[in-house]
Amino acid sequence: MLDISTQIGTLKLKNPIMPASGTFSEDLADVFDLDVIGAHVTKTVTREKRSGNPTPRVCEVRGSMLNSIGIPSKGVEAFKKDVIPFYSRYNAPLIVSISAGSADEFASLCEEISVPGVAAVEVNISCPNIKDDGKAFAMRPSTTHAVMRKLRDSTDLPLWAKLTPNTGETTEVAKAAEEAGADALVVSNTLLAMAIDIKTRRPKLGNLMGGLSGPAFKPIALRMAYQCAKSVDIPVIGCGGISTIEDVIEYLIAGAAAVQIGTATFIEPKIMARMVVDLAVYLETQGLSSVRQLVGCVDDKGASDGLVFMEAAP
Amino acid sequence: MLDISTQIGTLKLKNPIMPASGTFSEDLADVFDLDVIGAHVTKTVTREKRSGNPTPRVCEVRGSMLNSIGIPSKGVEAFKKDVIPFYSRYNAPLIVSISAGSADEFASLCEEISVPGVAAVEVNISCPNIKDDGKAFAMRPSTTHAVMRKLRDSTDLPLWAKLTPNTGETTEVAKAAEEAGADALVVSNTLLAMAIDIKTRRPKLGNLMGGLSGPAFKPIALRMAYQCAKSVDIPVIGCGGISTIEDVIEYLIAGAAAVQIGTATFIEPKIMARMVVDLAVYLETQGLSSVRQLVGCVDDKGASDGLVFMEAAP
Amino acid sequence: MKSIALDTAPGTGYANPIHEVECIIRSNDTVNGEYRLLVLNAPLELLDCEPGQFFHLLCPVSGTFKPYLRRPMSIYGYYPDRGELHFLYKVTGEGTSAIATLTTGDTLNVLGPLGRGFDILPNWQNLLLVARGVGLATLAPLALKSRRLNRKLTAICSARSRKLLLSLDYFNDLGVRVIAVTDEDGTSSVESMRSIIEGLIAEDPIDAMYTCGSNRILKLLQSVAATHRIPGQIALEQQMACGIGMCQCCVRAFHRDGGIVNERVCKEGPVFHLQEAVGC
Amino acid sequence: MKSIALDTAPGTGYANPIHEVECIIRSNDTVNGEYRLLVLNAPLELLDCEPGQFFHLLCPVSGTFKPYLRRPMSIYGYYPDRGELHFLYKVTGEGTSAIATLTTGDTLNVLGPLGRGFDILPNWQNLLLVARGVGLATLAPLALKSRRLNRKLTAICSARSRKLLLSLDYFNDLGVRVIAVTDEDGTSSVESMRSIIEGLIAEDPIDAMYTCGSNRILKLLQSVAATHRIPGQIALEQQMACGIGMCQCCVRAFHRDGGIVNERVCKEGPVFHLQEAVGC
Ligand SMILES: Cc1cc2nc3c(=O)[nH]c(=O)nc-3n(C[C@H](O)[C@H](O)[C@H](O)COP(=O)(O)OP(=O)(O)OC[C@H]3O[C@@H](n4cnc5c(N)ncnc54)[C@H](O)[C@@H]3O)c2cc1C
Ligand SMILES: Cc1cc2nc3c(=O)[nH]c(=O)nc-3n(C[C@H](O)[C@H](O)[C@H](O)COP(=O)(O)OP(=O)(O)OC[C@H]3O[C@@H](n4cnc5c(N)ncnc54)[C@H](O)[C@@H]3O)c2cc1C
Ligand SMILES: Cc1cc2nc3c(=O)[nH]c(=O)nc-3n(C[C@H](O)[C@H](O)[C@H](O)COP(=O)(O)O)c2cc1C
Ligand SMILES: Cc1cc2nc3c(=O)[nH]c(=O)nc-3n(C[C@H](O)[C@H](O)[C@H](O)COP(=O)(O)O)c2cc1C
Ligand code: FES
Ligand code: FES
């Protein structure tokens, strides 16, 4: 019997394919049956209503995209009223992504959102720590640890910490999140980037800079997922640039227990549904009986000792 | 009269197009006349002979490449004997890239290489600081400052500091380099990344990880070049993913006073020569009379105040 | 017929589900110097659409053109009887250049129909449409529908030059009264158009106005419509990634309830109330 | 004729400078199930080459194939009289798949000729060539040259099956003595080949041996050549980025002066001394 389920802490997912926060919504239900995927992950929600960043919020770069959506949010009340009930019609577990400008606000939002219908909370600690120096919580181990500690005390639900690629301390941040009680790591959010329209000489994004996602980003996020899987014992959920079934498998081999698909859904809206099938076919073709046989099977001959050294460029 | 020259500190380049270290060598003289470009930049050289990393040293990723060449080096003696004399037949200034495992070794190599025929020294501080904790000097402002100080004392030649994109402190590192006496910043070296062969389950690079370069890397390096140009008063030399004349112009508009072309030369060996012509044509078409009119002309409405905040992902 | 109540309650879904289909190209020819007409073979489920809706096109990667995101394109014509879907487009950048390379027999992946189209409410009998340039692509199917519903339609078509005026034959064939205005004739200025419209209203009161795109025309129609209390609708554009409401990148600001709200062009739009639209 | 002194003094340059040319494709057909023959129209400057040299091909980006780096490919044939450049290739991944989509009249950007080719020293009269699979592509032009130089050449051609044996006609036409060995006939084992070669040597002493690729054959030839003190050359492969000596990614290890040195396959190679090659 083919087993394509995966285990993220106490949460069993029927398959390792789920959406990335901000690239998925109720609207996708008009395209395919959302119950075929392993979990549902909502756009990051904040406590208050927010309108997000100025437009243009998106631009194309060679083979990928930048976005500076920001976190437009209807606020937690509207979210609980409209969004959670929508997803309760599905069996797939609902993962709610949250964000806040300080550790305390983060914790109180987390508490507020820990309601029936929510299976886990993904904490988007790649957002700016406004109360502090404005750098994202996940830029440093210390701020990661501090916010995760408070979050841990605020809920009994599984906590998934979403990391940022903008830091130079990936493994340290991963360990800090684990130590402070994260149940899983999502690796990772988008990478700060920029594009300028040479005709108008203006930044292509209304917000000056934005986050790189899509295929161009894959080798970077894959490296981070590998580094994290080597450094922590909690599950790592790979995210970044996945657009083919081979990409999914590459992440699993690198050590990810599940993956999130973001930008690729914009190009091929049914891609997640397709990948669930393709993954089963792949396992069968390879004579494997479960996803677990793939996770972390990278043949790296113990080379991971060199991880720190590798943080230098070639 | 069309003026496509550019000024990097005391050094005047007849045009802003030059190669990136490690993607250029004497061998390119078999393809075009090397005197048409603004400067010559050598592969990083170390004091001792070194053999570099295990193979495979290169792999393809979607629309770009990873490399883990390492720094194979014939050593400084052979370099002085063979390489410097080769380039002395050209008018274009020779920029020698150097690297070492500690600040002191760096400084003494810099002194040793400060010989006639060398117009400036590019210090590849993106390499690991072996004597310290193995992280690259340019990962942190403090280590950057320390090594640049020693380097500054070791030579009278212009010093170009080559930064790494693997840090979360780009602007702080840039400022530290400037403060310690760098004459220009080269932004930037490659970004740590990884790829796994799903058939063999082995990393595609013999060295496990490597540096991303090429088009996929452009929006990231451009963002860094912009951040640096906003943060320091010394010239910034943009480097990363440039493969069209539009890319060159985008970097100039973002604030780079010159650019380095790396990976694109592997695809189109004559690209630098072509870009010198294309740049002149572009300026003419736009009714501009000098490169200087482009440098830093980005219309960002003072948005750079938000730089730190932007270090958070969207 | 869908109303544009513009509520954003989640998960209400479309009346028509969204399809992703690889369509075969029937033809892809230049219409005049600047525009091209793309005709696709389309299955029936794609053709259950409304004027004002759009498709999100996956442009081919070929040679130097390497578009990544899909490109939104209004439905210029949908013909269930012939199994045809038409787009009228202007080659502007990488994506549309790539589409222009396609020839008969090639395929194009389309996603749609998307968004909310124009309304023609039962009591809207005398309709006015004002369009400039490629905006006609968006408004053309409205003419077909208004004829099917037996409404009277006047179209003011504006362009830089007479050469660039599009779709005049198309409108004439449908019995639409066409008023062509151009920059070269000096008839396309705001004042000139205002007096044309005021003349039309004086002749026979207009029940609803439609337009798209141009900021200048938006301002003009808002003013005329406010004076005469005529309802109106406008189709708007914005950069898009997903095209189906997920990414929130395509928002625009609208006046509502005395304040400003953001709405997604791809989902709550691209058709909005004329008076709510904020010029830019 | 260039010698393979294998020195790495900088800036010595090639005898032939390197050209980047957009060539028109004359044909691109399947040769047998696994191999394809690509024939390009090539200007004379590209055809001043040596057996064993290679070109670096810029594979087209089309549809799902999006190769980025160039792909190295040995010269299978160069015909200045006909203005033709031939490559024999196996479709293995994205790049070669993309090349396989090209048809007559399309263009392909090639860079070369690159690297150092095989030597045929004046006193090398009786030559042996041992090739397996697509390795024949690399060794074939050696046959043409040896004929031009009036040398005697024997080719041992090895493949999985008789069906996959390549270029036999090509060799036969050139008057080469061909010995075909296959896995299916059980004639391609190391022992079997060793006795064939020993038989040849006994018959008529061999002056030089050539091979490429296969590790098993390398080991065999190194051993036979050492016993009989026969010089030899081998063409090697390695992942390449630049193809012209700049990036240092294509190095391989070689025995030299009692130690191990790294040499660039694209520049000091792809042809190296048989005894210096390190198997892998
Ligand atoms: C709902 C809607 C309907 C449209 N209908 C039509 C139509 O019927 N005919 C037609 O010719 N054009 C139409 N457009 C505009 C069309 O989408 C753009 O011209 C096209 O995306 C340009 O792509 P490009 O790659 O050629 O240009 P580029 O300038 O290279 O595009 C770069 C990026 O900007 C986006 N972009 C550029 N212009 C626009 C624009 N005006 N609106 C939204 N995104 C843009 C592109 O989608 C792409 O992501 C419509 C736009 C929208 C939003
Ligand atoms: C000097 C030289 C001469 C060659 N001559 C021939 C020839 O005449 N006929 C022929 O069929 N093949 C030849 N090869 C091998 C050929 O280069 C590879 O088969 C080809 O690069 C595979 O590309 P791909 O995209 O189809 O495969 P992929 O496996 O998708 O390639 C991925 C990457 O690995 C590289 N790569 C894969 N295999 C090899 C290889 N064996 N050697 C070097 N790089 C490789 C590719 O160039 C590419 O960068 C030669 C290789 C070298 C180095
Ligand atoms: C349009 C857009 C909006 C996003 N919004 C969020 C968000 O609200 N919260 C979050 O944690 N990540 C957000 N992300 C990041 C994605 O969840 C994901 O981490 C990233 O895009 C990398 O994955 P990908 O390359 O598959 O898209 C967003 C990404 C995109 C492209
Ligand atoms: C094969 C290769 C070797 C490189 N070697 C060096 C090096 O020795 N020293 C250095 O400072 N940078 C080195 N780099 C980095 C480049 O100089 C450049 O910073 C980087 O490739 C980004 O530019 P690109 O995208 O235009 O290639 C190397 C890059 C490549 C691809
Ligand atoms: S384009 Fe994604 S929400 Fe409209
Ligand atoms: S491929 Fe670049 S040195 Fe050989």
CATH superfamily of chain A: Aldolase class I
Biggest interface, chains and residues, is:
A-B, 75 and 74 residues
Averaged pLDDT of chain C = 90
Question: What topology, given as strand order, has the largest sheet of chain C?
Answer: 4-3-7-1-2-6-5
CATH classification, class level of the domain at 19-114 in chain C = Mainly Beta
Q: Please identify the structural class of chain A as seen in this structure.
A: alpha/beta
Structural features, described:
The complex is a heterotetramer, with two copies of chain A (314 residues) and two copies of chain C (280 residues). Chain A is built from nine helices and 16 strands. Chain A has helices at residues 75-87, 103-113, 141-154, 170-179, 218-231, 245-254, 264-267, 271-285, 307-310; strands at 6-8, 11-13, 17-19, 40-41, 58-61, 64-67, 94-98, 120-124, 159-162, 184-187, 191-193, 196-197, 202-203, 210-213, 236-239, 258-261. In chain A, strands 3-16-15-10-9-8-7-4 form an eight-stranded parallel sheet. A four-stranded antiparallel sheet of chain A has the order 5-6-14-11, with no helix packed on it. Chain A is globular, with a radius of gyration of 18 Å. Chain A starts with 5 loop residues before the first strand and ends with a helix. Chain C has 280 residues and is α/β, with parallel strands linked by helices. In chain C, the strands form three sheets. Chain C has a seven-stranded antiparallel sheet. Chain C has a six-stranded mixed sheet with strand order 10-9-8-11-12-15, with helices on both faces. Chain C is globular and about 55 Å long.
